[in-house]
Design a protein that fits this description.
Helices cover about 75% and strands about 0% of the residues. The chain has four helices and no strands. The mean pLDDT is about 90.
């Protein structure tokens, strides 16, 4: 799904390519932070009343994937 014209996409790409690597990295870091906060906010809304440990574990599974979350945090059963 694309809500921009191909001309707008071309302009955006040209502007991004003209940025310094540090500026592109800062933008990507900002987008990543914003996405993490959106996921966390959604989980807090969906699972209101759950413990912070439960929400953090659920976030880890959503952000990292179940397999990596298990490697990092151990089995999810201990989080409720």
């Amino acid at each position: 799904m694309n809500d921009s014209s191909s001309e707008a996409d071309a302009v955006r790409l040209t502007l991004i390519q003209g940025m310094s690597p540090s500026r592109r990295l800062a933008m990507a870091t900002g987008w990543s932070s914003a996405m993490r906060e959106l996921v966390r906010s959604n989980l807090k809304t969906q699972f209101a009343g759950e413990s912070e440990a439960f929400l953090q574990r659920l976030f880890a599974e959503r952000w990292l994937g179940r397999e990596l979350a298990v490697k990092v945090y151990g089995p999810s059963e201990k989080y409720g």
